[in-house]
Amino acid sequence: MTISRSQANRAGKILKTGKISDEYYDAISILDAWRKQHENPAKIFFKKLLEITNKYPNSIATYRLKRKESILNKLNRNNNHFKLGEIDDIVGCRVIVDSVDEVYKIYNEIIGLKQSGYIGIKTIKDYIKEPESSGYRSLHVIINQLCSYGEESRTYRIELQIRTRLQHYWSTAVEAMGEIDGVEYKNPTLSACDNTRRIKSCLKFFKLISELVIAREYKNSTSNKTIESINAELEKPDFREIIEDLTLVQESISIKIHGSFDISEKRLYLLEFSRETQELSVYSYTIDLTDEAIEDYNNSENNIRYKKKYGVNNDASQKKDKNQKDSSITNSITVNTKVRDINRVLVYAKNNEQLYDAYPNYSYAIGKFIDFVETR
């Protein structure tokens, strides 16, 4: 028997209470089942997405399931009305491309899928044309993907983000700063709070950098005078300190590759990064093994369980295949993070640089972000 959206919503209400009980454990089981039901529709859509992105030589496509802890955190966020059955991003797919023009070309192909009856579209949020107050920019499309389990058919929601590389580097830097400071800078309610000088400086800094990204992506859209004014403001001590902190994180992470995963053909890569041990495992799949890659990703994600706050064991089992390659990371600084777990992403990459772009750690993307800031 499958879990209905209304059943998921009822379980979500129980999970919001945080009271450990038999009813709470049952609700956790429903969450697990509801999350797992998204796997097949996600596989259907991701394979169709790969057909589209394969037409764009420098594009990157990624796939991930929202971790259980992230779902619980979202349900328990202050002043929110999230319902478990209404969370749109339990499955997330992301496409990273070279330009804004390519963002909309891929978007138009997604619209073509809708017109052909392959998918439905619930909502479209264009944060490129209308950025969030934080400066965040990306094109979000909530996909409705029909999927059948036995005799039951229903639609499942998948969040698709399409963004440029510069937008991706900006977003990654915001996440990294959030872990450095222990602040959820992506939280849209943060700017309305009575915050410390550091938080206000970070919010302002990333807003300014976002404006420079816009100027780069839309040449001649911003006056030279405005750009000069932004550049002058970025030289203030508070902002230079932010750049120095990001540089420290980036420079303190050294990647040691055991074996090789040089790309000689288009492949799917399952990347598993442990924030606690700073170890990275890389598993590669030829494109004809897409189903197997997605299944392995889903299985590895389902092996994560949480203890204490959520009442079950916390362990992560990782399978090892003799044909796969490994790499590991050593990190000489400690990043302030509340989540010490395995970060996984499934990546479709055509060369090493693309693989690093999608790498589930901050070193490479922060380096690119700093390069952009310092050479502005």
Automatic annotation (TrEMBL):
UniProt-listed GO biological process terms: guanosine tetraphosphate metabolic process
Superkingdom classification of source: Bacteria
Alphabetical list of InterPro entries matching this protein: GTP_Pyrophosphokinase (IPR052366), NT_sf (IPR043519), RelA_SpoT (IPR007685)
RelA/SpoT domain: residues covered: 63-185
Protein name: RelA/SpoT domain-containing protein
Organism: Gardnerella vaginalis 1400E
